């Protein structure tokens, strides 16, 4: 309410130059610039990286604008004047480290000018910010090492899904973002809110999620893949092992969700969407200063979505609300507090698809609309997060940051899905798997980090050090699963079944609890022996503990404790600049991950994963960072990898796994992201992964070895510059599952999408996304049951900005 009333007052009162410009004390700071001429978004990204300033501007005013660049040792103010020369834009400093751009008044001629300001150094609150840049890449990322590095300076493969690209493709869920990310494969096996999706990278499951760099627990229920994207500025995916910042985890990838922050200028948007299968969505975002001096800023984001599905009867809806305040306590200290709430629910929902085979061993052929869920089955996830960040900027570029977060969740799933038994030709032989999952979860996380530069042997180097820890708990009632005495789960005729079946009575059988604690210390430094050579060395010491308890209504309870103390995770990386554009790199880290979800046929958790991960590659940075490209090769060696044990189940009825010794994953990845030429953005690449056991046999055969993804948009020139057109291609190679008499092969497939946007006015635009243009029928998963990908569908979005 405070933000809205402030916004209305500011909209009602005409702004003056005196209100906009901020006078800052001159300290004689100069910076060495070597920014080549090129498209303005990339030039500004390079400028922000060189100065530490945050440059904010509406994306439309930079589209198609070319900058002459800037070279030499200059004051940041003078460099900004040069790189804006001839662009028709004016820059204003709204605080010591934030610059805004706007169109130059017509009467002022064609010269780039600034209000009278003097400049002092500062650190951007979010140097990797993608919102408002109009770009498909970012100039800075710290998700791999917590050192603020450009993608080219980072000795690992990093993909960044920017705000602009998420908006252009209409990606409203994290799982959809991952589905479009290079080197990541998503196998959908259930609706929103279920645990029916699997995400893989480099042959291994993706289980490491972070929000603003704070790791989520690996206890069941903390997965953020269903989160809505409305509250996030960008999604950063670091492929490969990320033990330096996660401590425990798979050598697949780490997904860091970076929240939107308040802005020093008033901005906002309201958007409505309508699409196939009765999809309706409303989203709004308002941000800006709450006081006249701009020292208190706020932001509020809300979204609501309601939709059916191409699957019969399935209905989904979600609510999102996010609010954040940012206050400058002193000139050098910023305090941020916020709250995020998301609720997701799916009704008439199944967590599996349909049987792949008849009882006689021949393949089935179901329609894409087939729903194997009972009418009373549902999934619900409720997520409330409160967070706080205190950041202090010392002299000489050093910062100290304290983060505290409290995450409370609830998941509730009433299970009833027709995947039990063997399907006969007459429709008999099938039944439902009934049960209920319901738990409350909480996680309290604290981290403290120190980041800055130091001089040694006449050269400047970087250092990061920190400590962090979390306590996570899952607690809930246990309900009957899979087999319920006195309940008949059989389906008379699977072909004509419409989900109608008696709902079982599910009384609690007891209570169970899982507690997980992790305390770690980590540090990393980037040493610069020469201008062209960077060496990054880091390590992490972890203490991890997990306790599981159960208290059944009848019989004896159980208690188990697993812990690992003093786990040492090293990291080493080297980057060598060959030219101003090209670099080569290599990196190494070790792997450690306790396994609590994957159990063998006796119900025992598999031993922890351990091994080593190696990566090497080439990176390039074109047009001052507007376009980034990379090529990488990798090798992952791992023991105790959990692989599904076909046809065998743990005592609780879940899939049983077996530990595989000597698993090895190797492959390569190619990626490009950013602006190729004025108005032409691209993002995508190719990946190949081969994972085998010690005997050389292929593993994870249900995960595609080869994928290709490419999305591109182009803003038409001249009189057609209000029109943007785009297209997307996603191709996955063949997969198979099963052995002996029942192998199931799925050929490779490609899906083509189209999009177009029309800028109706300077503030209003309409976007049309046409997905699966050729209505390709394909299976998104063949792991245990079949599940189809979405047929052809359309999404129309209307957005107004201010």
From TrEMBL:
It is a multi-pass membrane protein. Residues 144-157 have a biased composition (Polar residues). Residues 118-157 are annotated as: Disordered. Residues 53-104 form the Secretin/TonB short N-terminal domain. Keywords: Cell outer membrane, Ion transport, Iron, Iron transport, Membrane, Receptor, Signal, TonB box, Transmembrane, Transmembrane beta strand, Transport. Its main location: membrane. GO terms for biological process: siderophore transport. This is FhuE. Residues 130-143 have a biased composition (Low complexity). One of its GO terms (cellular component) is cell outer membrane.
